[in-house]
Amino acid sequence: MMWKRYIVELGWGADLHGQDVTKAAERAVKDAISKSCLCGLKEILEVEDLNEVGVHVTIAAPYPEKVEAEKVMKVLPIGKKSIEIVKGGMEVPGLCVEEFGDLKDSIVIANACVEVKVSCENFISAKK
After folding, report:
1. How buried is residue 90: exposed, middle or buried, by Cβ count under 10 Å (0-12/13-18/19+)?
2. Average pLDDT value for residue range 4-27
3. Which pairing describes strands 54-61 and 80-87: parallel, antiparallel, or unpaired?
4. Which has the closest alpha carbon to 112: 38, 35, 39?
5. Nearest-angstrom CA–CA distance, 74 and 69
6. Which ranges constitute the DSSP H helices of the chain?
7. CB atoms < 10 A from the CB of 5, how many?
8. Cβ-count burial of 70 within 10 angstroms (0-12 exposed, 13-18 middle, 19+ buried)?
9. Is residue 96 over pLDDT 80?
10. Which residues pair with 87 in a beta bridge?
11. Tens-place pLDDT, residues 25-67
12. What is the C-alpha separation between 126 and 122, in angstroms, rounded?
């Protein structure tokens, strides 16, 4: 099946305490999807089942091997979900407060790119 991108949205998230890159990635995805209203899927392309759209997430995090992909994808409310996790994001000095769960004195930051895609069949039928 061929897909066309409908929207690309970017977001970022941080874990200020605890250095949890999964939490930072979840927040980055939430940030990205909170900026988009996908009304065109229904109103223009007439997509009936929003779980039939493709939703691909790329996460850039300082420790990609520690990002729990399944947890991050649960943030997405619709779609056939896929994820790619790459090295990136940022780690900067923070404040170590053991009571907040800190392991060290740093803040981890993740970036997210969320792409919503529609099948070419939906795109072609909308043109008719």
Report:
1. middle
2. 95
3. parallel
4. 35
5. 9
6. 21-33, 39-43, 69-73, 120-127
7. 11
8. exposed
9. yes
10. 61
11. 999 999 999 999 999 999 988 899 999 999 999 999 999 999 9
12. 6
CA distance 128 to 110: 41
Going by C-alpha positions, the residue among 82, 95, 77 that lies closest to residue 19 is: 95
Q: Is 78 exposed, middle or buried (0-12, 13-18, 19+ CB in 10 A)?
A: middle
CA distances from 83 to 86, 97, 126 (A): 10, 32, 28
Structure tokens at 115: 């792409």
Phi and psi angles of residue 108, each rounded to the nearest 5 degrees, phi first: -105, 140
Query: Which residue shows structure tokens 């409310």?
Result: 77
pTM for the full predicted model? 0.89
User: What are the structure tokens assigned to 66, written together?
Assistant: 């520690």
pLDDT category, 125, cuts 50, 70, 90? low
Distance CA 6, CA 32 (A): 14
Please report, in angstroms and rounded to a whole number, the separation of the first and last CA atoms in the chain. Answer: 19
